[in-house]
Task: structure prediction
Amino acid sequence: MNYLMVLYILSFILKAEGVFLLLPALTGILYRESGVVCYLAVAAVCFVTGTLLGIRKPVSRSLYTREGFVTVAFSWIVMSIFGAVPFVLTGDIPSYVDALFETISGFTTTGSSILSNVEGLSRAGLFWRSFTHWVGGMGVFVFIMAILPLMGMGGSTMNLMKAESTGASVSRLVPHVKDTAKILYGIYIAVTVVEIILLCLFGMPLFDALTTSFGTVGTGGFGIKNDSMAGYSPAIQNIVTVFMILSGVNYSLYFCLLSKKVKEAFRLEEVRWYFLVIFVSAGVIIWNTRGLYATLGETVRHSFFQVGSIITTTGYATTDFDLWPSLSKTILVVLMYIGACAGSTGGGIKVSRLVILVKTIWKELSLIIHPREVRKIRINRHVVEHETLRSINVFLVIYFLLMLVSTLLVSVDGLDFTTNYTAVISAVNNIGPGLELVGPTQNFSVFSAFSKFVLMFDMLAGRLELFPMMVLLLPATWKKR
Amino acid sequence: MDIIIVGCGKVGYTLVEELSSEDHNIVLIDENPRKVQYIDEKLDVISIVGNGISHETLIEAGVETADLLIAVTGDDEKNLLCCVVAKKTGHCHTIARVRNPIYNEELGFLKKEFGLAMIINPEQTAANEISRIFQLPSAIRVDTFAKGHVELLHFKIENGSILIGLKLRSLSSTLHTNVLVCTVMRGEEVIIPNGDFEFREHDVVSIAAQRHDAINFFQKIGIMKTKVGNAILAGGGKISYYLAKALIQSGIRVTIIDIDRNRCDVLSSMLPEATIICGDATDQDLLSQEGLENAQGFAALTGLDEENILLSLHAGKVSQAKTVTKINRITFTSVINELDLGSIIYPRVITADYISKYVRSMDNSKDSNVETLYKLANGKAEALEFIINGESAITGTPLQNLRFRKNTLICCIYRGGRVILPSGQDIIKKGDSVLVVIYGYSISDILETLED
Result:
């Protein structure tokens, strides 16, 4: 284990967080709030700690898969630990455990909150909460790789990117990891800015537009209103629907479009399935919830919003879907599992993994009929390597085991099954709301501190796609080589 | 620059590693998925599994917009075909590796008719380098510049040399020679020495000089050895063939030992003047029988690095021969450098240097051109020859008034058949060919040696 290198990279993460923390401070200054000092102080602490960690330059710059995974998992934890401090200092969230839950929920783009009255928070606090979504959405390592030349590391930075990005197989868009990271962030920023402008044009105040956009594009889901998005005009809700769904699309689609490979873009199997699932689910829900709302238009709007919000694992709500009929609620739970596309900012199992899994099932069934058949699984016309298939299978096993164990641990609190179960699904898949006591109008403050820690681990594991956090638990990781 | 590399063997890997670190965008094509995956994890490139001759694969790799395609698969024919397909699809420059001796005489024809920018033959290049060493056995490495008028000669300071303890400042006054010390390698360290530098035992020194001045210098420091008269080549591969041919041409008697009967038959029919021995080159008795004790040159060129190392150590022990060792893989260099192997030849590095040179001359400006490039000290330092095509900030000003970057040395200026070892008053003019040694950075234009 190259500890020095891990610490060295951690120093960059802390410095970056120091810079990020200046933004809520700026917000505080604009709104003349007293919490500014706290944000500035924490930013300074991040900077000093980062600089101290960076003093000892690592002798060997090698970063193998193990170091890559550990660095990423560790950095996300450290980032959350520091990021939670301002909430406590400003008094927005007095309990540190709650503040940590809120911050991890932010960075992992979950959007589950422990606050019952969001509107009581300071402006700086609201901004920081939403901004953590934006940072966590595309990932902080991708950000650092885009702006800093991590010299002498060459292709091994790919190990960091692999650990942080979503999807079964992470590939480069262009030869250099650095340029790939730049392109990803370029698209990310562009989408965010467009949404902010559109929201402002349709009458949303700038502050609301900023925080809503951070939450949408990062597929987070922290609202700044107690009723999430329900209070905004239908036009605004529709814009958010579109941007949520767009943020759940594999970013290589946008890269294909940008580099004028339109044909290739339309050939992306995963994106096709993604849209199919959205339209079919929304269709069924529209039919199922007919009569619940005054007009058909309203039904369509709410159905698409909720479907988009859940499948992309954002977690905004325009209506209390806990009151929907059972079929619609179940569809939403199924969508929670499916999640967004690989290579997007969303969570969940990911459409591509499921497509491959379904094809694997197909292959196995076909093998019963033709025992000697040789059949390869393809996606986007490319053969999927055996290693990728194996890792997807293992992913699924860990995924369900993690949910099972977490539900078991959380049920110690004695709440009802639906609450516990959907809370865990919501945490692992980075969605936000669940059903019953953690439904869209409720919050997570009902859980004990122990359960909160379990859910925090689930959120991190879900965001980093299980393996990095699991590697941390492996004793062999910490042994000297 | 966008570069496509087809084939990922030893040379391919070295190329990818080197060009990717020089900030080019590399797309790699290879048919072996395992190799591709290995590279994908280690280096900063896009890699594609596929056949490099396939039009579709090439398009996927972006051949339509690429600047350069380098075909270095194991197959000459594949490489040529790949370049032709690429040329027809896009408008990139193409470089092919062709190493079969049968095509060797026809390279000019192939290059012209297929529209190739360059054909590389690593075995031929390595053989040339070994041949130069056998011509001047005092050096352990000989790099040529200015069409052979200037040489960069590397030699090791042995125990008891009169150079030990001598300051560089007093070198010319003590020895009265016309050579310029360029770099000194001390262990893993590379030094571009100044006047206060003091030579020590085991230093590997490189000097820039014309051949007669170098001979004069070697005589004065007492390590002059004349051209070898006979040489034993262990292993009968392609390098041995090319080397034997070159050595025979300059009147050196050659014995080649190879274990494969069929290969010996082929060699014997292609090289009538050489003595071909069919036998195991690692057989001590056989080596003695063939006169290793009296050999003046010995080259270990078998396919196994370990065998080559042992053979050279053995030859160094039992004879006075000048030894040359071929090493294919570039791992364990720090251990290998400590052994007394004489000259070490890395064919893949030589090839990579050649292509690097081409790539740099492709993307540099109009006023200077990279003519030659050699990497020194495991790639830490570089010796480059530039042709000055136009007036620029570096021309017309005395060198002492120019502000060069740290670790830069203008070694030599070649102007109209005259070699100048420059002092502070000398100036660089248009049309000159300038030899520069740099350490710690890399350049493709001579102007980059100046401070901003």
User: Anything to note?
Assistant: The mean pLDDT of chain B is 87. The first helix of chain B runs from residue 10 to 21. Chain B is about 35% helix and 25% strand.
